[in-house]
Amino acid sequence: MRFARTVTAAAILLLLRATVAGAADVYSGHAIAMHGDLKYAADFKHFEYVNPSAPKGGTLRLGVLGTSYDSFNPFIVKGNAAAGSDRIYDTLMVASADEPFSEYGLLAETITTPADRSWVEFKLRPIARWHDGQQVTADDVIWTFETLREKGHPHYRAYYAAVASAEKTGELSVRFVFKPGQNRELPLILGQLPVLPKHYWQSRHFDETTLEPPLGSGDYRIDKFEAGRSVTYARVPNYWGKDLAVNVGRENFDVIQHEYYRDDTVIVEAFKAHQYDFRLEVSSKQWATAYDIPAVRAGVLKMEEIKNDRPQGMQGYAFNARRKLFKDYRVRQALAYAFDFEWTNKTLFYGAYTRNRSYFDNSELAATGLPTGAELALLEPHRSRLREEVFTQEYNPPSTDGSGKIRNNLRQAIDLLATAGWKIDPKTRLLTNSESGETMGFEILLVQPAFERVTLPFVKNLERLGITATVRTVDTAQYQRRSDHFDFDMIVHRVLQSDSPGNEQLSFWSSKYVDQPGTLNVIGVSDPVVDALVDAVIAASDRVGLVAASRALDRVLQWGHWMIPNWYIAVDRVLYWDKFGRPPITPRQGIQIDTWWVDPRKEATLEQRKSNLQSGT
Fold first, then answer.
1. Does pTM top 0.85 for this prediction?
2. Mean pLDDT, residues 366-381 taken together
3. 603 and 538 in one domain?
4. What is the C-alpha to C-alpha distance for residues 393 and 383, in angstroms, rounded to an integer?
């Protein structure tokens, strides 16, 4: 017995030591950073880029380009969700706009995760409430997670694929356990979860469109709407989270209105007539030519270019690689020689843009030069599957002198196409496959009429190669249906990136989702090397490793010729009627309209200033 007691005491001592060591390896706090340290301590009062004294009140009117909407459920693939319909829900955590990737508690009071991030637990704030007064609970979190995976948009299945289970550990606490493997981003991925009310949706069909305003928990609710034409959100007067540090100085408008306009011309003219208040201009032509009006010259309507440091991702003409025509990389590479960016930028865009060349443009994640160090080490195991150019050449898209004379480029395209079995028939002057006898032709599907002026010259250049390309512009609803179901040959596509890429890369590039309707792998990339490098991005344990893995992935995608690169601009082109105030600091992510406010003094004089302009006084 004495020996037994001694052994038991020793065992207890070892257990205590293990428990203490284990506890030291578990982090619990108010926030979490993907890599490195948090900027804001537990006792922070507000984000640096807000005005904590910003007055609440007034109306923000926004214009939406689109034919209509038919649903207030933005979480499913069916239907067209109303603009802003996700704003009525709070998430577990909220990201700061001045860090690469850090999240701070919103619905969640604390986040707990071990050093290996094999699970994460969120403890909800006891004060969190739905708009009907009921408490937000762990059951709501679990129901939301399971419903989004089972019935939500397909990208949720990819986003949450590495989550093994969601477990209720208390009335206000939930633990998510992850599948084996390195994925340090998962705690932050779950932090982004928009939480929906289980008691509301249990008596409704979640996977159907609805124009019944849903129950939310956020600082706004749907106030009124005119189906397909407008929707108005009103501040919730007794919003439970209004005094939280993450909300101080944000969401300052009492009312936010979204008005729908059918085409680019109408929406611009409506803005100049002050039918809405704020506009982010994406057209260089409009920016250069559409706003030379008295209101701008007098400063009543403001125009500003506000720099940002956020990654620009890639925009370009995207091939549907599921099509037999585009399975050969040499065909994809050849067609890029027919797009003359330099002429387009000079002639149509007033020289405003920079050429896209990377899927992580405007960031340190972009692959440049030749691979070295950690990036090269990631690529070496795949050398036999990769073309030699990946290791020996820096990727850059075809370029011209901007004169519009691209004979040399077209000659290179013809040579590439010949190696792929395509030659111009001397009788028909059409590009013809030497084996099948078929001629090359495809459709470029557009949703923005403004893109026709860019695409039609591209089509003319393709004609010089003997290719019959047609342009078809459709409405938003039809475009969404066709792209969701891969019913296209080529579209204009943009891959949005962040400072901290991770799980979303699965839905962008993974072969698992290539045939799943609604996937974000619009192109249809199915490449084991890309799959492996996506895994490396997700598994990166620190910033250095993340940069190396992102560059390796970028380099392989560049040389895959999956898109014909377009352009980007590293500023936000902002127009607004002079009724607003805004903080002096713009964070690295760029303009944050939710930190602006209506200035009562400016608003009181705005109509008189507009009237004076009209009368010439």
1. no
2. 97
3. no
4. 14
